[in-house]
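Email to the structure team, subject: Membrane proteinase PrsW, cleaves anti-sigma factor RsiW, M82 family model.

Hi all, the expression group asked for a predicted structure before they design truncation constructs. Nothing fancy, just the C-alpha cells so they can compare against earlier work. One-line instruction: predict Membrane proteinase PrsW, cleaves anti-sigma factor RsiW, M82 family, return C-alpha cells.
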Amino acid sequence: MSLDQPPGQPSPEHLPVQASPAPVQPVWNRAVRPSRAGAIVLGVVGIVLAGLALLAVILYLTTFLGTGALLLGLLLALLPLAVVLLAVRWIDRWNPEPRPALIFALLWGAGISIASALVFDLGVRITIAASSGALAGSDFASAVIQAPLVEEIAKGFGVLVLFWAVRRHFDGPLDGVVYAATIAAGFAFSENIQYFGLAMADGGAQHLGVTFLLRGVFSPFAHVTFTICTGLALGLAARRGASKSGAFGFFLLGLLPAIGLHALWNGATFVLAGDASVLIYYVVVQVPLFIVAILIVVFFRRQEARITLRRLHEYSQAGWFTADEVSMLGTGAGRRQAMAWGARQPRSRQLAMRHFIADATRLAFVRDRLVRGQGAPALYAREALLLSLLINHRAEVLGQQPPG
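Reply from the structure team: attached below.
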C-alpha cells in the first residue's frame, strides 16, 4: 500500500466496479445524454470568435493578394488541408472527440493563431520603423526565431484552451495529438492561401507549381509535426490527472521541441544552398522525423485499444457486459463486425449501436482515470451516467423498450 493511500481503502488497481443491477441480455449469440457544457461553450462562443478571426484574416489577405489570387490560393490550400484532416479522422476513430471542439480547433488554427502571428509581426515592424535605425530586422531572425516562437505559442495555446474547456474529453496523449493536428492543419491552410496567392501574383503558374509542390505535396504535415509535441505533452498531463493550472507546466515543456523543430525546418532554407541540398535535408532529416511521429501515433492508438479491452473486461466481471460484447467493443475487428451488422438494421438501431460503442469506450477511459487515482465525484457521476446510457443503448439495439 502506498504511503498516501488511506487505511482500509482499496488500491487504485483493485478499485471495485459497481455491480450490474441485473443480468444483461447480450447484444450478440440508449436516461439523459452526458452534459456537454464545455463543448457547447466552444460551439457557440468559441467557434463564433474564432470564425470572426478567420474572416479578418481572409479580408487582410484580400487587400494585397486581390480576389482572384486569394480564391486560387484558397482552392489549392483545401487540398493539403483535406489530406491532413483525413489523417486526423483516422487517428480519432477509436475514441472520437466532440465535433464542436474539433471545429473550434480548426478555426483557432486558421483564424486566431494566424491573426496573433500577423499582429505580432506588425508590432515588430512598427518597433523597428520607430527606432530610427537603432534596430534592424532580418529575414533569418524572423523565420528562425520569431516565427517558431510566436506561431507555436499561438497554436499550442489553442490546445491548452481545449484542455481547460473540454477536460473530460481529454483522456490522454492521442487526444492531444488530434487537437494539436487539427489546429496545425487550420494554421497551414491560412498560411498556404498567402503563399500560393503570392506565388501566383509574383511568378505566375511556374512559381505557383513549385510552391505547391513544396508546401502541398512535400510538407503538408510540417506544422502538424511541430505542434503535436505540445499536444502530446498536454495529453500526458491529462493521463497523469494534472489540474488545469498544473497542465501549464506540461504546456511549456511541449513547446520546447515544437519550437525547436519549427526553427530547424525554417532554418534549413537559409543554411542550405540549392534545391538539391534542401531535398537531401528533407529526406535525411524531415522524413525520419515524420516517420517517428507516425510510429508514436500508432503506439498510442494501440494503447487506447488495450485500455478499452482491459477496462471493459473489468465491467464484464461485474456483469455489465458479456465476454462477446467486450470483444466487440474492444477490438477493431469486433467493431467492424458490429457496424456491418448495424448497417443492415433500421436507422434507430444502427444509431444505437454506434452510441453503444462510443459510450462504452468513454466508460473505459473514465474507469482508467479512476484506476489511476483520479477519483473526483464528477468522475464517479459520469461513470454512473454512462452505465445508465449503455443499458438504454443495449435495449434499443435489441429493439426493446428502454427501461423506465
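Residues 173-218 form the longest helix (46 residues). The chain has two domains: 37-271, 291-404. Ping us if the truncation boundaries need rechecking.
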